[in-house]
Amino acid sequence: MLSKARYTEEHNMPVVQLIDKFSLPKGHYQLDIPKVAQMNAGDLVDGQDLIDSEEITPTIVSATAAEVGIKVVITDRLLRQNNESVFTITGRQIGDAKDLKKDTDAIALCSGFTDTYGGDKVITFALATGLIANAKENKYGNPLFAVHHPNVIWKLAADVGNIVTSDPLPDVFNKPAVKDYYSGVKIAGVPFFEDGNIAAVSGQTYGYGVIAHSSAMGYLVASAKTERRQRDESLRATEVIIVEEYGMFEADDDRAGTLQYTQSSIST
Fold first, then answer.
1. What is the pTM of this model?
2. In CATH, what class is 114-216+252-262?
3. Does domain 15-40+53-105+218-246 have CATH number 3.30.2400.10?
C-alpha cells in the first residue's frame, strides 16, 4: 500500500513576478520594444529662431519565445496502487517543474548587466546602501528591487541587526505573487527578495543576483500552458503532455546591475 505522497520542497521564486510581462499577439514571431533617447531643452532668446533640434532616435530590443514542455507517463498499475489522485500529484509536480524552469531562465539574465556590484564580497549594510546609491545615481528608475540567494539576504539582515523589520513592502510589490517572498529587509525604500535557485558560480563562493527596475528584464508569453492527454494501450498508460511558449530577455541594460556577493552557508 502506498501512503500519502510527500513533495520535494521548492525555493522561493520571485524573479518572474518582479519583471515586466509581455504578450506576443497571434501571427507575430517577435516583440520589438523601442527605447527613446533623452532630449535637451534650451534657453530661448526673444526674437531669435530656435537653432537646435532634437530627434527621437529610438533603439529597438527584440524578443522571441520558445516552446518548453514536459511529458509524464502514468501507468494503469500506478493508478490502481494509489489512494490519491495520481493526476493531482503529477499536476503539482509539473507545476513546480515549470515554475523552476522559468525562475532559472530569469535568473540567468542577472549576470549579463554592465554594472556589477560586490565582487565576491560578504554583503554588509554599508555595501547595500552603496549599491542602492549607485543605482539611484545611474538612474535605474523607481521603484527598485533587489534579489539574491537567501544566505546573502540573511547575512545582510544580521549586519543590519534586525532579522524581521516592521517596515511594509512598497505598494507596487505588495501583491500575492511576490509578497510571500519578501525577506523583511528594506533599505532606503528598496525591498530585498530571496531566491534559493541562484546557484554559486562553478568553483566560486558567489552567485549572481540583481538590483533593478522591473523594466530592465522582460517575460514574453506567446502561448499559455496547454495540456494534452494521450492513451497508449500497448504501454497500458496515459501520457500527460504540458507545453508552454515563452521567453526571458534583457530589455534595458541601463536599468539594472548585477549583484555578486558571497553566498556560502552561514555558520550556526
1. 0.81
2. alpha beta
3. yes
